[in-house]
Specification:
With 122 residues, the protein is mostly helical. The chain is 83% helix and 0% strand.
C-alpha cells in the first residue's frame, strides 16, 4: 500500500542530508572528497554509538541511500564479523556487508567507461 508519509519522511530527511552536504560545499573550503569521507565516517560513528538504527527506523532510505548508509553498512558488517569471526572478521565483515553495492558500482563504472569517452578539462 502507498504510504505517503513514509515517502515524505524519506524525501525530507534524504534532502536534508544532501542539503547539509551542499552547505558544506558552499560555505567551507572542504573538497568534495573530504565531505564524502566526513559523511561516511558520520555513518560509522552513528552506528557505533547505536544512533543509526533509530534514524533508519524513522527515515528509512532517507539515511541509508546517502553515503552515510554505506558507512553504516561497513561498521555494522565489521561489528558482526568481529563478533562471529574475531579480529579477521572485523576486517572482512565490512567488505562482505557492502559487497553488493561495491560490485554494482564497479560494474556500472566499467559500463559507463565503455559507452562514454573521457575528456581532459582545459
Amino acid at each position: 500500500m502507498f504510504d505517503f508519509l513514509m515517502y515524505l519522511k524519506v524525501f525530507l530527511i534524504g534532502g536534508a542530508v544532501c542539503m547539509l552536504g551542499q552547505v558544506l560545499v558552499i560555505t567551507t573550503q572542504m573538497t568534495s572528497a573530504r565531505i564524502l569521507v566526513t559523511f561516511l565516517l558520520l555513518g560509522v560513528f552513528l552506528e557505533c554509538v547505536g544512533a543509526f538504527e533509530p534514524m533508519k527506523a524513522f527515515a528509512g532510505s532517507g539515511v541509508t541511500v546517502p553515503i552515510m548508509g554505506f558507512g553504516y553498512n561497513l561498521a555494522k558488517g565489521a561489528i558482526e564479523g568481529a563478533q562471529s569471526d574475531g579480529v579477521l572478521g572485523a576486517f572482512t565483515g565490512g567488505l562482505t556487508a557492502t559487497a553488493g553495492g561495491i560490485a554494482v558500482a564497479v560494474t556500472m563504472a566499467f559500463l559507463m567507461a565503455l559507452i562514454f569517452s573521457s575528456k581532459t578539462k582545459k
